[in-house]
Fold this sequence. Notes:
This protein is α+β, with helices and mostly antiparallel strands. It has helices spanning 3-20, 133-140, 144-150, 203-209, 249-261, 269-280; strands spanning 26-31, 37-44, 52-57, 62-64, 76-78, 83-88, 94-99, 104-109, 127-129, 155-157, 166-171, 177-183, 186-191, 224-226, 229-231, 304-311, 316-321, 328-331, 343-346. The protein has an eight-stranded antiparallel sheet, covered by helices on one side. The chain has a five-stranded antiparallel sheet with strand order 1-2-16-17-18. It has a two-stranded antiparallel ribbon with strand order 4-5.
Amino acid sequence: MGKxxxxxxxxxxxGIVCANGANACTGITLESSxxxxxxxxxxxxxxxxxxxxYTIVPRDYIQQSMLPGxxxxxxxxxxxxxxxxxxxxxxxxxxxxxNEAGLSAGLFYFPGYGEYPEYDPEQRSNTISxxxxxxxxxxxxxxxxxxxxAIQNIRVTSIxxxxxxxxxxxxxxxxxxxxxxxxxxxxxxxxxxxxVLTNSPEYPWQxxxxxxxxxxxxxxxxxxxxxxxxxxAFGAGSGLLGLPGDFTPPSRFVRxxxxxxxxxKQDTSYDAVLQAFHILNNFDVPLGTEFPAGxxxxxxxxxxxxxxxxxxxDRIVYYHTMYNRTLRSIDLNKIDFATIAFQxxxxxxxxxxxxxxxxxxx
Length: 362
């Protein structure tokens, strides 16, 4: 596939996302008692089955950014750090991953609110496409402060005018995390103490919106005297009655924030990884919920095509997919990034659940 065909393929995908809002990325961050940090997220796409890949990138690998209309001469960058990433459509379009220094980065859709700098062909050598920004971050940096400084000196663009904008989450092993959003053509970098990210609106609005749920708390509410009668909860968990359950980005942000905050802190980062997948099960989007009744364009197991967790303590990436909920892992400690070749493979070798029959003895 040539460059112009690649531009067209990505443009079609992002154009549809913009038109239908058929995306619902949800990200959480957990810390464990052994000092571990886990950044986990889901990715949704309900229009069609994407090419879902994992990519291994060695040190010193050179990449060049794609530019609008197939323009040549985009930013060139080489990898100071090797990394593993989950990609869509093409191996270079890494949307979430972790490098050998333990830095994690991910792209989240941000339709209707972000605005990149206007594309300037005269500055093409300093311009990078939004779908390659994660690769640039993982290739070049080991801390969020380095990213925070460097993002001010580059220009980010979309390679198709129909495409949605994106925003990004970057996390280091210490737990320090930033959110990057381009507003009015300029990068806004926010320190993220909560560790949650979804989609639109902008990150500061999402934090303010949490104040609408100040009445929520874990546990069981009541009983309380109500005039001549006593009101009692029907069951456990009534303290969170009113927690939004729909799939809009603000509701998912609130739900993720409460579920993450009140989850039990785990002993190890591995345990936190398992906890993260359990929490993110609450955001698995059944395909039929994104479209009018009977209007889903395809029949897939889920609109949530994959879920990933980066263990920055043990340097292991875990994922499962809509086809196979079995967890798979890529251990960065077992990869020699100085000698391995650039490579990419489908997330699912076989698109089927791993079923283990129970052995019955007589």
